[in-house]
Specification:
9 helices, globular, 75% helix, 228 residues, mainly alpha
């Protein structure tokens, strides 16, 4: 039986879901770690599994477009898996009380107030709720458009939003994994400075809001043009 090569992007998408689940498990272990060695091991695996999952997000889309393997299953599954990966990771950052104070310097000083957490977690619960609302809205819009035979993929604002989310999650996990020292990623130390990290947070939130509104406008224009 010949292997259906056109399904490779979909297999990559499914593998990203497994990578996300594994990364969540190690994030949980990171929150429970009691020793420096346990924190390093959990952080190492959480960081690399998350990073590989992010890379596969670009890989499956690139392969599908390059080889004309775009399918309805892929258009639906890819954004759903992306949401699981990013929102699951952000929920962890909003609930991990022992992470922020250890990886973001000066979090308990006035400079640290630029990051609107509670002084321990790296982001407030309201930010996660806003992102969840945006994703439910976009998923509903995309489902409506697809059922009417109108392809409705992500736009550049959505992709930049996803990139900002990836950086926001990768910075603290990378620091826990000692990536700046052992993996030649010193830029992570720069990105974790409160002013820089807060900038990533607010860029992520602005892109979340703007891209959500942009989806509504695009859908309204598409539907109105077909009704004329």
């Amino acid at each position: 039986m010949k292997f259906p090569v056109q399904q490779i992007p979909n297999f990559i998408t499914y593998s990203r879901l497994l990578l996300a689940i594994a990364s969540f498990w190690f994030m949980g272990e990171l929150g429970l770690a009691e020793t420096a060695a346990e924190r390093y091991d959990a952080g190492f695996w959480a960081f690399w599994l998350f990073l590989i999952a992010v890379v596969t997000d670009f890989l499956d889309g690139w392969l599908a477009r390059r080889n004309n393997w775009v399918s309805l299953v892929g258009r639906v599954a890819d954004p759903v898996v992306d949401k699981v990966l990013m929102l699951g990771s952000l929920v962890y950052l909003a609930s991990a009380k022992n992470l922020g104070e250890q990886v973001i310097p000066y979090l308990d000083t006035p400079a640290g107030n630029l990051i609107p957490g509670d002084g321990l977690a790296l982001m407030p619960v309201w930010a996660v709720v806003l992102m969840l609302a945006r994703e439910f809205l976009v998923t509903a819009i995309r489902g409506l458009m697809e059922t009417q035979g109108k392809p409705f993929g992500a736009d550049w604002f959505g992709k930049w939003k996803l990139t900002a989310q990836a950086f926001f999650v990768a910075v603290p996990l990378g620091v826990e994994a000692h990536a700046p020292d052992t993996l030649f990623m010193p830029f992570l130390y720069w990105l974790r400075e409160p002013h820089i990290y807060a900038g990533i947070f607010w860029a992520m939130m602005l892109l979340t809001a703007y891209s959500g509104v942009n989806y509504i406008v695009r859908a309204a224009r598409t539907l109105s043009s077909t009704e004329v």
